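This section describes the prediction task in plain terms. A model, or a person checking by hand, is given the sequence of a single protein chain and must write out its three-dimensional structure as a string of C-alpha coordinates. No templates, partner chains or ligands are provided. The sample shown here is typical of the held-out split.
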Amino acid sequence: MSKGLVVALSGGVGGAKLALGLSRVLPADELLVVANTGDDFEHLGLSICPDIDTLTYVLAGLDNPVTGWGRRDETWSFMETISALGGEDWFRLGDRDLALHVERTKRLASGQSLSQVTGDVCRRLGVGPRVLPMSDDRVRTRVRSDEGWIDFQDYFVRQQCRPVVRQLAFTGAADARPQPEVMAALNGGNVRAVVICPSNPFISVEPILSVPGLRAAIDNCGAPVVAVSPIVAGRAVKGPTAKMMQELGLAVSSATVAGRYGDLLDGYIVDAADSGDIRTRLHVAPTLMTTLEDREALARTVLAFAHSLT
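The expected answer:
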Protein backbone atom coordinates (compact mmCIF):
# COMPACT_ATOMS: atom_id res chain seq x y z
CA MET A 1 0.00 0.00 0.00
CA SER A 2 1.28 3.45 -0.89
CA LYS A 3 2.87 5.73 1.65
CA GLY A 4 1.66 9.22 2.36
CA LEU A 5 -0.33 11.15 4.91
CA VAL A 6 -3.78 10.11 6.09
CA VAL A 7 -5.89 13.06 7.27
CA ALA A 8 -8.80 12.07 9.50
CA LEU A 9 -11.67 14.39 10.43
CA SER A 10 -13.09 13.54 13.82
CA GLY A 11 -15.54 14.55 16.48
CA GLY A 12 -15.64 12.81 19.84
CA VAL A 13 -16.34 9.23 20.84
CA GLY A 14 -17.20 7.56 17.51
CA GLY A 15 -14.51 9.39 15.60
CA ALA A 16 -11.92 8.68 18.28
CA LYS A 17 -12.52 4.93 17.95
CA LEU A 18 -11.55 4.95 14.28
CA ALA A 19 -8.73 7.42 14.93
CA LEU A 20 -7.33 4.93 17.43
CA GLY A 21 -7.61 2.14 14.89
CA LEU A 22 -5.79 4.23 12.32
CA SER A 23 -3.08 5.11 14.85
CA ARG A 24 -2.44 1.41 15.43
CA VAL A 25 -2.03 0.45 11.78
CA LEU A 26 -0.14 3.53 10.57
CA PRO A 27 3.22 5.02 11.54
CA ALA A 28 2.63 8.04 13.78
CA ASP A 29 4.03 10.47 11.21
CA GLU A 30 1.53 9.27 8.59
CA LEU A 31 -1.60 10.23 10.53
CA LEU A 32 -3.02 13.71 11.15
CA VAL A 33 -6.29 13.99 13.06
CA VAL A 34 -8.29 17.19 12.62
CA ALA A 35 -10.57 17.74 15.60
CA ASN A 36 -13.90 19.53 15.73
CA THR A 37 -13.84 22.54 18.06
CA GLY A 38 -17.44 23.64 17.64
CA ASP A 39 -18.23 21.83 20.91
CA ASP A 40 -15.69 23.93 22.83
CA PHE A 41 -16.99 26.23 25.53
CA GLU A 42 -16.07 28.08 28.69
CA HIS A 43 -17.24 26.60 32.00
CA LEU A 44 -16.33 27.54 35.57
CA GLY A 45 -13.85 29.98 34.05
CA LEU A 46 -12.08 27.21 32.15
CA SER A 47 -11.59 26.49 28.44
CA ILE A 48 -13.11 23.09 27.71
CA CYS A 49 -12.41 21.24 24.41
CA PRO A 50 -14.44 18.02 24.59
CA ASP A 51 -13.59 16.50 21.20
CA ILE A 52 -9.89 17.34 21.35
CA ASP A 53 -9.71 15.88 24.85
CA THR A 54 -11.57 12.69 23.92
CA LEU A 55 -9.17 12.15 21.02
CA THR A 56 -6.17 12.90 23.22
CA TYR A 57 -7.22 10.52 26.00
CA VAL A 58 -8.17 7.73 23.57
CA LEU A 59 -4.90 7.98 21.62
CA ALA A 60 -2.92 8.13 24.87
CA GLY A 61 -4.71 5.08 26.30
CA LEU A 62 -6.11 7.15 29.16
CA ASP A 63 -9.77 7.19 28.17
CA ASN A 64 -12.64 5.88 30.27
CA PRO A 65 -13.84 2.71 28.47
CA VAL A 66 -17.22 2.81 30.20
CA THR A 67 -18.33 6.38 29.43
CA GLY A 68 -16.28 6.89 26.25
CA TRP A 69 -15.36 10.37 27.48
CA GLY A 70 -13.11 11.63 30.28
CA ARG A 71 -10.25 9.76 31.90
CA ARG A 72 -10.15 6.32 33.39
CA ASP A 73 -9.54 5.84 37.13
CA GLU A 74 -11.09 9.26 37.71
CA THR A 75 -12.00 10.77 41.07
CA TRP A 76 -14.68 13.39 41.69
CA SER A 77 -13.76 15.39 44.80
CA PHE A 78 -13.81 18.69 42.90
CA MET A 79 -17.32 18.15 41.54
CA GLU A 80 -18.62 17.00 44.90
CA THR A 81 -17.28 20.16 46.50
CA ILE A 82 -18.61 22.43 43.74
CA SER A 83 -22.04 20.86 44.18
CA ALA A 84 -21.93 21.28 47.97
CA LEU A 85 -21.11 24.97 47.44
CA GLY A 86 -24.10 25.45 45.14
CA GLY A 87 -21.98 25.73 42.00
CA GLU A 88 -22.75 24.46 38.50
CA ASP A 89 -22.27 20.71 38.50
CA TRP A 90 -24.15 19.72 35.33
CA PHE A 91 -20.95 19.38 33.30
CA ARG A 92 -18.84 16.89 35.19
CA LEU A 93 -15.09 17.50 35.35
CA GLY A 94 -13.09 14.77 37.04
CA ASP A 95 -10.10 15.66 39.17
CA ARG A 96 -7.53 14.32 36.66
CA ASP A 97 -9.38 15.87 33.73
CA LEU A 98 -9.60 19.19 35.54
CA ALA A 99 -5.82 19.57 35.53
CA LEU A 100 -5.83 19.66 31.71
CA HIS A 101 -8.50 22.36 31.57
CA VAL A 102 -6.71 24.50 34.15
CA GLU A 103 -3.40 24.22 32.30
CA ARG A 104 -5.00 24.88 28.90
CA THR A 105 -6.80 27.96 30.20
CA LYS A 106 -3.59 29.35 31.66
CA ARG A 107 -1.61 28.78 28.48
CA LEU A 108 -4.29 30.26 26.21
CA ALA A 109 -4.42 33.33 28.45
CA SER A 110 -0.63 33.67 28.11
CA GLY A 111 -0.95 33.88 24.32
CA GLN A 112 -0.38 30.32 23.18
CA SER A 113 -2.64 29.05 20.42
CA LEU A 114 -4.97 26.09 20.88
CA SER A 115 -2.78 24.17 18.42
CA GLN A 116 0.33 24.82 20.50
CA VAL A 117 -1.36 23.75 23.71
CA THR A 118 -2.86 20.64 22.11
CA GLY A 119 0.43 19.62 20.51
CA ASP A 120 2.37 19.94 23.76
CA VAL A 121 -0.26 18.07 25.78
CA CYS A 122 -0.29 15.24 23.23
CA ARG A 123 3.51 14.97 23.33
CA ARG A 124 3.54 14.87 27.12
CA LEU A 125 0.86 12.18 27.21
CA GLY A 126 2.64 10.04 24.62
CA VAL A 127 0.31 10.56 21.66
CA GLY A 128 2.20 9.82 18.44
CA PRO A 129 0.00 11.19 15.62
CA ARG A 130 -0.60 14.91 15.27
CA VAL A 131 -3.92 16.07 16.69
CA LEU A 132 -4.86 19.57 15.55
CA PRO A 133 -7.96 21.73 15.96
CA MET A 134 -9.83 22.68 12.79
CA SER A 135 -9.03 26.31 13.64
CA ASP A 136 -7.31 28.28 16.36
CA ASP A 137 -10.13 30.80 16.12
CA ARG A 138 -13.31 30.59 18.16
CA VAL A 139 -16.17 28.63 16.58
CA ARG A 140 -19.22 27.68 18.62
CA THR A 141 -22.05 25.35 17.66
CA ARG A 142 -25.50 26.69 18.54
CA VAL A 143 -28.83 24.88 18.52
CA ARG A 144 -32.20 26.48 17.81
CA SER A 145 -34.94 24.69 19.68
CA ASP A 146 -38.59 25.58 20.21
CA GLU A 147 -37.43 27.77 23.12
CA GLY A 148 -34.89 29.68 21.01
CA TRP A 149 -31.12 29.49 20.53
CA ILE A 150 -28.99 27.66 23.11
CA ASP A 151 -25.31 26.75 23.34
CA PHE A 152 -24.45 23.24 22.22
CA GLN A 153 -23.25 21.97 25.60
CA ASP A 154 -26.41 23.33 27.21
CA TYR A 155 -28.40 21.23 24.72
CA PHE A 156 -26.13 18.20 24.79
CA VAL A 157 -25.18 17.84 28.45
CA ARG A 158 -27.33 20.06 30.68
CA GLN A 159 -30.57 19.28 28.84
CA GLN A 160 -29.50 15.78 27.73
CA CYS A 161 -30.54 16.41 24.07
CA ARG A 162 -34.21 16.77 25.10
CA PRO A 163 -34.99 20.00 23.16
CA VAL A 164 -36.25 19.55 19.61
CA VAL A 165 -33.59 20.65 17.12
CA ARG A 166 -34.91 23.08 14.52
CA GLN A 167 -31.65 24.52 13.21
CA LEU A 168 -27.90 24.45 13.78
CA ALA A 169 -25.44 27.31 13.42
CA PHE A 170 -21.66 27.58 13.76
CA THR A 171 -21.04 30.99 15.25
CA GLY A 172 -17.69 32.45 14.23
CA ALA A 173 -17.05 29.89 11.48
CA ALA A 174 -17.39 32.39 8.63
CA ASP A 175 -14.50 34.46 10.05
CA ALA A 176 -12.37 31.55 11.29
CA ARG A 177 -9.07 30.71 9.68
CA PRO A 178 -8.27 27.04 9.04
CA GLN A 179 -5.43 25.64 11.10
CA PRO A 180 -2.24 26.39 9.09
CA GLU A 181 -0.60 22.96 9.47
CA VAL A 182 -3.79 21.26 8.33
CA MET A 183 -3.92 23.44 5.23
CA ALA A 184 -0.22 22.88 4.55
CA ALA A 185 -0.73 19.13 4.78
CA LEU A 186 -3.75 19.16 2.46
CA ASN A 187 -1.96 21.38 -0.06
CA GLY A 188 1.36 19.58 0.18
CA GLY A 189 0.73 16.88 -2.43
CA ASN A 190 1.51 14.02 -0.03
CA VAL A 191 -1.98 13.04 1.18
CA ARG A 192 -2.95 9.47 0.37
CA ALA A 193 -6.44 9.57 1.91
CA VAL A 194 -8.85 11.82 3.75
CA VAL A 195 -11.02 9.88 6.18
CA ILE A 196 -14.26 11.26 7.58
CA CYS A 197 -14.69 9.30 10.78
CA PRO A 198 -18.11 7.98 11.87
CA SER A 199 -18.92 11.10 13.85
CA ASN A 200 -22.20 13.03 13.91
CA PRO A 201 -22.26 14.78 10.51
CA PHE A 202 -24.21 17.79 11.82
CA ILE A 203 -22.32 18.68 14.98
CA SER A 204 -18.91 17.04 14.53
CA VAL A 205 -18.01 17.05 10.83
CA GLU A 206 -19.95 19.99 9.39
CA PRO A 207 -18.34 22.48 11.79
CA ILE A 208 -14.96 21.39 10.38
CA LEU A 209 -16.16 21.71 6.80
CA SER A 210 -17.70 25.13 7.58
CA VAL A 211 -14.29 26.73 8.21
CA PRO A 212 -13.53 28.73 5.04
CA GLY A 213 -11.07 26.98 2.78
CA LEU A 214 -11.07 23.58 4.47
CA ARG A 215 -13.68 21.85 2.33
CA ALA A 216 -12.07 23.14 -0.87
CA ALA A 217 -8.61 22.05 0.31
CA ILE A 218 -9.92 18.56 1.03
CA ASP A 219 -11.65 18.43 -2.34
CA ASN A 220 -8.50 19.54 -4.17
CA CYS A 221 -5.87 17.58 -2.22
CA GLY A 222 -5.62 14.91 -4.91
CA ALA A 223 -6.44 12.02 -2.56
CA PRO A 224 -9.63 9.96 -2.23
CA VAL A 225 -12.07 11.12 0.45
CA VAL A 226 -13.70 8.21 2.26
CA ALA A 227 -16.37 8.50 4.94
CA VAL A 228 -17.60 5.87 7.37
CA SER A 229 -21.31 6.02 8.12
CA PRO A 230 -22.31 6.62 11.76
CA ILE A 231 -25.66 4.90 11.05
CA VAL A 232 -26.20 1.16 11.40
CA ALA A 233 -29.60 -0.39 10.61
CA GLY A 234 -31.32 2.98 10.71
CA ARG A 235 -29.95 3.93 14.10
CA ALA A 236 -27.06 6.04 15.29
CA VAL A 237 -24.28 4.06 16.90
CA LYS A 238 -23.69 6.80 19.46
CA GLY A 239 -25.21 10.13 20.49
CA PRO A 240 -28.13 12.17 19.15
CA THR A 241 -27.52 11.78 15.41
CA ALA A 242 -30.74 9.88 14.67
CA LYS A 243 -32.85 12.17 16.87
CA MET A 244 -31.43 15.25 15.16
CA MET A 245 -32.07 13.82 11.72
CA GLN A 246 -35.70 13.08 12.53
CA GLU A 247 -36.28 16.54 14.00
CA LEU A 248 -34.67 18.20 10.98
CA GLY A 249 -37.06 16.27 8.74
CA LEU A 250 -34.44 13.89 7.36
CA ALA A 251 -34.59 10.14 6.92
CA VAL A 252 -32.38 8.31 9.41
CA SER A 253 -30.15 6.48 6.96
CA SER A 254 -26.61 6.18 5.72
CA ALA A 255 -27.81 7.62 2.42
CA THR A 256 -28.89 10.84 4.16
CA VAL A 257 -25.45 11.22 5.75
CA ALA A 258 -23.78 10.66 2.38
CA GLY A 259 -26.05 13.34 0.94
CA ARG A 260 -24.80 15.83 3.53
CA TYR A 261 -21.23 15.34 2.32
CA GLY A 262 -22.31 15.41 -1.33
CA ASP A 263 -19.69 15.37 -4.05
CA LEU A 264 -16.89 15.71 -1.52
CA LEU A 265 -16.96 11.90 -1.16
CA ASP A 266 -15.11 9.49 -3.42
CA GLY A 267 -16.11 6.46 -1.36
CA TYR A 268 -18.40 5.53 1.50
CA ILE A 269 -18.23 2.63 3.93
CA VAL A 270 -21.50 1.35 5.34
CA ASP A 271 -22.60 -1.59 7.41
CA ALA A 272 -24.31 -4.49 5.64
CA ALA A 273 -27.65 -3.32 7.06
CA ASP A 274 -27.39 0.09 5.38
CA SER A 275 -26.33 -0.27 1.77
CA GLY A 276 -29.50 1.42 0.27
CA ASP A 277 -29.57 4.01 -2.50
CA ILE A 278 -26.27 5.86 -2.20
CA ARG A 279 -24.75 7.72 -5.13
CA THR A 280 -21.08 7.12 -4.52
CA ARG A 281 -18.67 4.19 -4.54
CA LEU A 282 -19.72 1.89 -1.71
CA HIS A 283 -17.85 -0.61 0.38
CA VAL A 284 -19.84 -2.78 2.77
CA ALA A 285 -18.05 -3.82 5.95
CA PRO A 286 -18.70 -4.26 9.67
CA THR A 287 -18.64 -0.73 11.11
CA LEU A 288 -19.48 -1.38 14.76
CA MET A 289 -16.32 -0.93 16.82
CA THR A 290 -16.80 -2.65 20.16
CA THR A 291 -13.27 -4.02 20.56
CA LEU A 292 -9.78 -2.83 19.79
CA GLU A 293 -9.60 -5.48 17.08
CA ASP A 294 -12.75 -3.99 15.50
CA ARG A 295 -11.13 -0.55 15.41
CA GLU A 296 -7.98 -1.88 13.76
CA ALA A 297 -9.95 -3.98 11.26
CA LEU A 298 -12.11 -1.04 10.19
CA ALA A 299 -9.02 1.16 9.89
CA ARG A 300 -7.41 -1.37 7.55
CA THR A 301 -10.64 -1.60 5.55
CA VAL A 302 -10.79 2.18 5.19
CA LEU A 303 -7.18 2.42 4.02
CA ALA A 304 -7.52 -0.46 1.56
CA PHE A 305 -10.74 1.00 0.13
CA ALA A 306 -9.14 4.43 -0.23
CA HIS A 307 -6.16 2.84 -1.98
CA SER A 308 -8.51 1.11 -4.43
CA LEU A 309 -9.97 4.49 -5.35
CA THR A 310 -6.65 6.13 -6.19
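For orientation: The chain has twelve helices and 14 strands.
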